[in-house]
Amino acid sequence: MDTEKLSSKIAMNEIVNVNTPDFDIDPEKCLGVYDTDPCTIVIMGATGDLTVRKLIPALFNLYLNKGLPKRLQIVGCGRTELDDQQFRKKMENALMALDGKNRSKWLLFKDTIHYFSVDYDNLDSFIDLAEFLKNLDQKHKTQGNRIFYLALPPSLYQTVAQTIGQTGLAHENVNNNGWARIVIEKPFGRDLKTAVHLDQGLRKFFQEHQIFRIDHYLAKETVQNILMFRFANAIFEPIWNRRYIDHITITATETLGVEHRAGYYEQAGVIRDMFQNHMMQLLALTAMEPTSRFEANQVRDEKIKIFRSLRPFPVENLHDYLILGQYGAGTIDGNPVPAYRDEPNVNAKSLTPTFATMKAFIDNWRWQNVPFVLTSGKRLAQKRTEIAIQFKEVPHSIFRQTLGEAIVANRLILGIYPEEKVTLTFQTKQPGAKVCLRPVTMNFYYNQNYSGPILDAYEKVLIDCMLGDQTLFWRQDSVERSWAFLTPVLEECEDCHNREEMLHIYDAGSWGSNFSNIK
Ligand code: BG6
Fold first, then answer.
1. Which ligand 1 atom is the nearest neighbour of the CA of 385?
2. Catalytic site residues?
3. Quick one: which of 37, 110, 202, 312 has the fewest CB in 10 Å?
């Protein structure tokens, strides 16, 4: 076909295809009527914040969108003495304004919710719970399948896993049990040693395929989109490497301060709170090799290779690779906010970092010497989560004589928050007689041409637990590698004599500490 015919064909196609995409999407398939087994979700810590704010609303939403198995029971467990009615009322209040249709649905849904009071370290109370669950199974035909969701402080994870285990509830397919899964949220330890210790405690009773370690970042649609974007498009992968990419920045900044979590945050700081988990997952998804199939263990096998390839942090040269900061007083959205040290329950001389920028390298063929610059912090100018791929400049500019300046290199941004989007910046000619370049940005907004429901992170997590799909959960080997990379950094920062000097105080509402010594 000659080029003229070819271009007229393309032009025709463009006309014909306006507003009529030539690809088929089966909405049912994408929204998912999930093929989940009947089961009981047992929430430990059911009177706490997480249950009220996240878990029950997520379960109710799934119910409204027909995302739950037909035979599902929910059992809230806690130390407080409550009966079913009192617990249901508490949950109903948490759902806030239930209008007409939702209210009538709630009246149907609430009967699936029960309450059983337990003492977390008392075997007898768990033996009673086991009996209660057995009866519930028989009555509602939930086939002995159970999810134990630990909505509890991490200090209780081992104790509760142990009492569940000693009662025989962790055994699968024996004594009227079906499958048994345990769900925990970070922090998975506070360094390598404690992470290993926690795992040893869990593994006495649960095997790896039964343990679901949540990272809510992985349940974000746009984070999952990273793999689709990279591996369902042939055009990006060939340039996704050191030959074309100059550096990659991964940013997760927040305007929120420490809020009411000083007790936890004072012990954690930004590296444990954001880097060991969310930032490392974003890094792995951006850098990993394609798998043969999109399947939990294959994806996790590729991620662990990235964690294993992280160049050990040059702790002797920390200043060139890491900046730590802590917010001082400032202004957010026009309102004055206190310094971190003046927040309730924070030590007035606290040296806990609320901000960090870190430069990391991955020692493999694809990424040799490409800096990955990770930044996260609280009380910054804007809440923004994004991955920016900065490509290299053109090898030689034919316009240099006319323009007399370097050409701004291409940049691809995978936006996660506030705008869920993909943008590509490239150069075009500025219209007019003169030779001038004009950088333009091509935008794709994630919800463009889509009006269906979007799964909240906790809805996604709960569905995957019910399906037994561990793709979006941490596997212990990765938890350990991530800690192995960060523990020496934490030790160096926390034990060094100049800890105070290392900490830059920045104004709340600003863009944080000075990045000048890091690319
Ligand atoms: C949590 C951290 O894991 O993630 C919080 O403990 C942080 O400190 C939060 O605020 C950020 O999550 P998101 O989804 O708002 O970016």
1. 16
2. 278
3. 312
